[in-house]
Amino acid sequence: MIKDTVPDVERPTSLPRWRSLLFVPAHVSRFVGTAHERGADGVILDLEDSVPQNEKAESRRQLPESVARVGRKGASVLVRVNRGLRALAADLDAAVVAGVDALVLPKTDSAEWVSEIASAVLELERERNLVQERIRFLAQIETPAALQKLAAIASAHPRMVAMALGPEDFSASVGGTPEIDLLLTPNLSVLFAARAAGLLPLGFVGSISEFSDVDKLRQTAAHARRLGFAGALAIHPKQVAIFNEAFSPSAQELEWARNVIAAENDAAAHGASAFSLNGKMVDPPVVRRAHDTLALAGSNQPTSDQ
After folding, report:
1. Which alpha helices (H) appear in 22-84, and where do they start and end?
2. What are the residue ranges spanned by the domains of the chain?
3. Across the strands, what pairs with 102?
4. Span 212-238, pLDDT tens digits
5. Of the residues 21, 46, 58, 88, which has the maximum number of CB atoms within 10 A of its CB?
């Protein structure tokens, strides 16, 4: 296995804000052409499950143009590659191009696999005079065996930026259906491993294919944010606005956060690190949550007039 030993490379230091990542089949031109209008934080050009075998080669050939089309309004551009070696090699050759922000790695089952792909991407970046280490990885966890290696996968390479459970594939791999009882534990496992490694945890506890019941989807997404997830993957444009709203702080949450931080400043002036606010005890972990809430909204000011 080739080790990456490049000292002076540009590596992103902050996590992207991916409340919604919209899958788009790379072979369907009309979907690619309208993806930038959907409002997603990122668009995933899919070369894997949604593309028939006889359409994959043409999808790869069109990829540079597709990347430019879906990213024209500033959304992150991701490409989901295939797992098989021959298809993966062809996918990487097509996907390591200017404008691609991340690769989605399906059925990730080991840190070694991530490292091998990282080495191949680095070679292509060097050959093509691209910014080295710019392309990052989102690993999809889709087998029970991968659950035993989550910590190693999450810290496998500096390119790792996010992890998500693939609920449909995971459920099929254990002979079950994508229901809450089955998916809660693996989702939380991915969440904990991602947070421990400083990555974005993406997903929700449920089937990704359910998009027609808007109220249920909104509740599911809101639940995911309360658990600690940062965003979710969407397979239909209807899901995008719901995810963007669910993974953003509400006006009520922002008001609470500003009040907490204002009270923290007052308490600090009196030498206190814990204080009471509206009948509830506030200590440093609660203050941290308030700061995180404001950060999600792009604000670190305790009040609007300060």
Report:
1. 29-34, 56-61, 63-70
2. 20-246, 251-296
3. 78, 136
4. 789 999 999 999 999 999 999 999 999
5. 21
